[in-house]
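Retro notes
What went well: the complex prediction finally ran end to end.
Inputs used:
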Amino acid sequence: MSQVRTNCPQCGAPVTFAWSSSVQTTCEYCHSVLVRHDVNIDRVGQVADLPVGVSPIQLRTEGIYNGKAFTVAGRILYEWENGGWNEWHLMFQDGQSGWLSDAQAEYFITFPAKAAAVLDPNNLVAGQAMELNGHKLEVATITRARYAGVEGELPFEYWDKNEVLFVDLRSHSGAFGTIDYSETPPITFFGHAVQIEDLRLKNLREFEGW
Amino acid sequence: MLKTPIYTAWGVLLIAGYGWINYKSFGSGTATEQKVVPRTVRQNPGSYRPAYGYGGYHGPAHGGYGGGFPTGK
Amino acid sequence: MATVPKPKALECPNCGSAVEVRGFGHAVSAVCNHCLSVIDTKSPSLEIIGKFNNKLRVTPLIPLGQRGNIDGGTFEIIGFQDRHINVEGTEYHWQEYLLFNPFKGFRYLIHYSGHWNVVRTLHAIPEYTTKMGKKAMKWQDRTYTHFQSATATTGFVIGEFPWRVKVGEQVMANDYTSAPYSLSSESADMEINWSAGEYITGDAVWKAFNLKDSPPEAQGVYFNQPNPHTGLVTARWRTCWILWGLTIVMFFLTNMFTKQEEVLSREFVFVPGPTSAPGSQASVTPIFELKGRPANVRFTTSTDLVNQWMYVNYALINDQSGGARDFGRLIANFGGDGSPNDNITIGPLAPGRYYLRVDPEWQPDPNVTIATPVPRPVKFRVRAIHDTPIHWPLPFILLVLLLPPIAATFRKLAFEGARWSESDYAGG
């Protein structure tokens, strides 16, 4: 599947799937969630206007991580008891897909990873050890969140999860891991904390007075 | 060494002083100096009186000694 | 996408005053400057979740809204807290300024007693370790020694924060030091948060924020304040070893460039008698020549004295000028006291022809009434060595050279002593 240009089945506005691996996107005009099945486009739902938010990152922001260029293709906005955060879907130059976690100006970049053994979420203790990608990590936080909205191109079909259990793992070296228990089997992500300066971001949002 | 200019200068001064003492070849002990010793005394080792001052000359030297007389002039 | 607009000021639900919002959507709590009510900015009704006591109001040294160039970026002060710990009945207060930049996120400027730190939250978890027997944390190839463990209470807050502000909130705070850096942890319930800091002077802060007046003067030594004496200590010890080397070199040079020529070596016998007349055993040596530059002569007297003494009157006479130098040597050897050998260096002497008058003597002790036995005859050898090196300055110089680096080291240690006197580990 390559770049596909089509029209929104709901409002007729032009819709582009810029990346071949994207399974869904949102219509910029009517906020319909559109899922691609080869040539056919299905409208599966609609998202409310996402709040203005505080992140300097937006769709089409570009940057460099570990020497590889990426573009921000989509986003999931999560909400939990104490607030919300963004997971930006990154599409790298070489076709690889990654995630930029953006919460209170703290950033992590992770990629899907294979876990040796997956922890039982009901039996977890803070500080519990787990090995991931050759790194020793410790359980740091357990978060219950839900999807508050989606935007742009994402590599899967679902767009409205009501309950997502996340376990965050941290390490002594800045390595970071997340286990997403909303799927069976749970999906594991591994990556690192990043300083926003190091990503050399372009096409960021502008803030009044800054 | 450049970060400690005063200390370095002071140390070099001390070492230079050490060298200078050796160059001048000073002595360490005190020795009183007498400018001129009369000729007669030189020929008469026993009668020469050093600064400590004794009373009188008591005859030629006796007892064993390994020294000799000054060679003639 | 459109520019994110500056948030409108909130209306305090308690007193109606305008509460300015500077952190865009990050704020979770905002404190009304007028009535000190804590507002939950995420709740649609702007629920009030607390209120600070106006009696505990602290005025920030740097006003909210002030922007400064710090930690590689421009940051705006959007919040302020006054916190304290309680040690044996005394409260120790410090202030935290929350700095914000929409692209770089948050930093904290901590102020205590004229000392400042720029702090940011850590992503990684440091490792527990020890350093020289003390608790420590290791992070990014640096070891931070534990300094203090205490309960920190938040007494006063103004401005906005990206978390729920609780009046009188208490957390367990631990500080670790690796000057000029620091590591701190705050824990409450099950959560522990780590942050890393770097020491910065009040002058640097005032310059960064373009403030006109003067920063408060720093009192005492702060736990991660860099030791100002370290550089001098290293430099002085380095210079010391170089100077020591030069001193040793001078030692070898002086040995090399002195002739140390034996110009006289003669054996004498002294027979002490009860009434030996002075000068009765005097003799003169043959003439010996001192050649070359004016130099000293070391006269050594080696005897076989055992449990007795003798006094040798020496006169070094210049055969040409007639001038003489007198020196007398008392040589005594009794059990452990004294020595059978003696030496003295005379000089500098002009080159020329010299001879030595050797005049040994002994008297019985006039204060002793009973007759003292006459000591045995003494064999002694007189040597004269021309142009000898003078080495007495050597140990003196080596010792004196140690003084400046030792003094600097003491100052460095005194600074560290002052640093640690504020810690949990202060002796006594």
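What we learned: Chain C has three helices and 26 strands.
What to try next: split runs per interface for comparison.
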